[in-house]
């Protein structure tokens, strides 16, 4: 016995992150639904047919919405990827934590292994868990010090995911390889991988110096460092060989790995965080989706995303687990048209409005920064064809899904996440009283079912580096009646001093929570 204890002690001191031990329940969770979160990238409120898009057909997403609930006031937590994803997976507003802004491809893990995540929660209830697709929350224990040629010392296995097949950051950031269970997938021994966000590697071409090598896509701003697959990227990388991805195959690779996981776990409850690259830049969909949409590759990428959703649903039906699978489809932030590549997305909009009726896009403090498609389907429990105006936010997914699976959350975890399960299941048409939104420069907004309050800030009116996007910044308070004026043209702050004061009070209280933590 003593020997065993000693061995255990030695073992645990050898495992760097043994402090978070997730007790797995032995209780039968067979009846619990599978849960899949489909998180699109930069897909706008107005980019989907069932939310009003006219220039693109999205039959699979429409069908998913028709089978359950379509929320018309659903929000991402932030107007960019990393903080938005951080909040979804931890239930904590990203602005409470430093280092949660758009991450480089060689950022160390932003969610610490000791933090409780949504994956930990599912795992604690006996679910098989996985993350597939875009990660963008850092890997390894230190910024910029990863050895991509060896297993990473910290990865998603330390955050509760049993399996992962992910892109470290975004498709426009190096390293352009998939990471499978903490190591480069399809690793090529003959082409060791080096990554730097500081300087180029000797003799390696860059988009800036060798634009003639950008045979697949030219850059419109930035994206002029290393060239992979004829496309300029952010950051420098060398090597990779056969492990390098081909952008045209990203959607297929992600889907294939998701399908494999579903097949393997069809007989037990599983949780899948499925985050697509579509419709983020560089938009380089597979040939079979090309040239069919009048909006060019941005439209084709939406179609590719819709196809991916259709394939996942088809697999669930084939395995006869569709009825008991709860699917949430949403996006990490609002849309952007030209985000740094010459893909003619702007020129080919043909009247399409990616953010639907709302003002502002990705990055903005305006509604368009965080208003996203938000669909929940669970045929066994949710009635079909519901449209809900309730204010819902991704911040609440952790607590709400936790309630669904009767998980107990450790004290202090998911501090901003509330249980809105009955709203998400369509049993209650009321949502949150208010939720906080975050622009790319941390300008915070308070959103209620009627109003959006944007706190004063001195930043520029327009994004400074290329995309033609209004930031929503103004040195004085802004209050918009979203229900009457969704496009936020009439600032009614001066006439509604009491409402502004109430909003400021909410924001102050939320901020104070940080100090008392
Ligand atoms: C910006 C990139 C943009 C996109 C964004 C993050 C340039 C010029 N622009 O810095 O292309 O990658 O970061 O997008 O480099 S997000 O959806 O992952 O937050
Ligand atoms: Ca995004």
Strand content: 15-25%
Question: What is the succession of H and E elements?
Answer: HEHEEHHEEEEEEEEHEHEEEEHHEEEEH
Radius of gyration: 22 Å
Shape: globular
Q: Total helix count?
A: 9
The separation of the N and C termini measures: 41 Å
Average pLDDT number: 94
List the bound ligands.
2-acetamido-2-deoxy-6-O-sulfo-beta-D-galactopyranose, calcium ion
Structural class, by secondary structure, is: alpha/beta
Q: Identify low-pLDDT runs.
A: 1-19
| Number of DSSP E strands | 20
Share in helix: 10-25%
- Outline the biggest β-sheet: 10 strands, mixed
For the largest sheet, list the strands in their spatial order. Answer: 7-6-5-4-12-1-13-14-2-15
Could you explain how this protein is built, in words?
The protein has 517 residues and is α/β, with parallel strands linked by helices. Helix content is 21%, strand content 15%. The chain has nine helices and 20 strands. Strands 7-6-5-4-12-1-13-14-2-15 form a ten-stranded mixed sheet, with helices on both faces. It has a four-stranded antiparallel sheet with strand order 17-18-19-20, with helices on one face. Strands 3-16 form a two-stranded parallel ribbon. Helix 2 (59-66) crosses helix 6 and helix 5 (250-264) packs parallel to helix 6. The longest helix is centred in the middle third of the chain and has 22 residues, at 297-318. Bound molecules: 2-acetamido-2-deoxy-6-O-sulfo-beta-D-galactopyranose and calcium ion. Calcium ion (CA) binds at residues 41-42, 81, 280, 332-333.
């Amino acid at each position: 016995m003593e020997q065993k204890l000693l061995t255990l002690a030695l073992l645990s001191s050898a495992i760097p992150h043994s402090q978070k031990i997730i007790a797995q329940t032995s209780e039968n969770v067979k009846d619990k639904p599978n849960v899949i979160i489909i998180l699109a990238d930069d897909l706008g409120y107005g980019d989907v047919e069932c939310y009003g898009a006219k220039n693109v057909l999205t039959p699979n997403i429409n069908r998913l919405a028709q089978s359950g609930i379509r929320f018309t006031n659903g929000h991402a937590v932030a107007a960019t990827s990393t903080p938005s994803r951080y909040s979804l997976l931890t239930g904590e507003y990203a602005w409470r934590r430093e280092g949660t802004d758009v991450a480089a491809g060689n950022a160390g893990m932003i969610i610490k292994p000791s933090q409780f995540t949504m994956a930990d929660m599912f795992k604690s209830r006996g679910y098989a868990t996985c993350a597939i697709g875009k990660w963008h929350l850092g890997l390894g224990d230190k910024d910029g010090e990863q050895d991509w040629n060896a297993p990473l010392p910290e990865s998603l296995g330390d955050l509760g995911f049993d399996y992962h097949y992910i892109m470290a950051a975004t498709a426009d950031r190096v390293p352009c390889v998939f990471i499978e269970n903490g190591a480069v997938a399809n690793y090529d021994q003959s082409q060791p991988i080096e990554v730097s966000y500081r300087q180029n590697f000797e003799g390696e071409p860059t988009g800036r110096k060798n634009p003639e090598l950008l045979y697949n896509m030219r850059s419109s701003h930035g994206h002029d460092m290393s060239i992979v697959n004829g496309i300029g990227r952010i950051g420098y990388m060398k090597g990779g060989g056969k492990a390098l991805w081909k952008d045209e195959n990203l959607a297929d690779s992600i889907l294939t790995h998701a399908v494999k996981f579903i097949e393997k776990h069809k007989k037990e409850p599983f949780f899948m965080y499925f985050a697509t690259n579509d419709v983020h830049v560089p938009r380089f969909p597979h040939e079979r989706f090309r040239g069919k949409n009048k909006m060019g590759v941005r439209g084709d990428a939406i179609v590719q995303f819709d196809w991916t959703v259709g394939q996942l649903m088809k697999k669930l039906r084939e395995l006869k687990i569709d009825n008991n699978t709860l699917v949430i489809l949403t996006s990490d932030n609002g849309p952007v048209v030209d985000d740094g590549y010459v893909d003619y997305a702007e020129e080919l909009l043909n009247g399409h409005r990616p953010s639907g009726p709302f003002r502002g896009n990705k990055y903005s403090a305006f509604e368009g920064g965080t208003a996203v498609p938000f669909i929940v389907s669970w045929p066994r429990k949710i009635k079909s064809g519901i449209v809900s105006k309730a204010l819902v936010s991704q911040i609440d997914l952790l607590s709400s899904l936790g309630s669904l699976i009767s998980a107990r959350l450790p004290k202090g975890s998911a501090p901003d996440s509330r249980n809105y399960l009955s709203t998400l299941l369509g049993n209650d048409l009321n949502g949150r009283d208010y939720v906080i939104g975050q622009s790319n420069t941390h300008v915070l907004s308070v959103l209620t079912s009627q109003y959006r309050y944007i706190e004063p800030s001195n930043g520029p009116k327009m994004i400074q580096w290329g995309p033609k996007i209004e930031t929503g910044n103004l040195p004085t308070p802004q209050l918009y009646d979203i229900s009457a004026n969704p496009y936020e043209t009439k600032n009614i702050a001066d006439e509604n001093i009491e409402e502004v004061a109430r909003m400021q009070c909410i924001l102050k209280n939320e901020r104070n929570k940080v100090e008392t933590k």
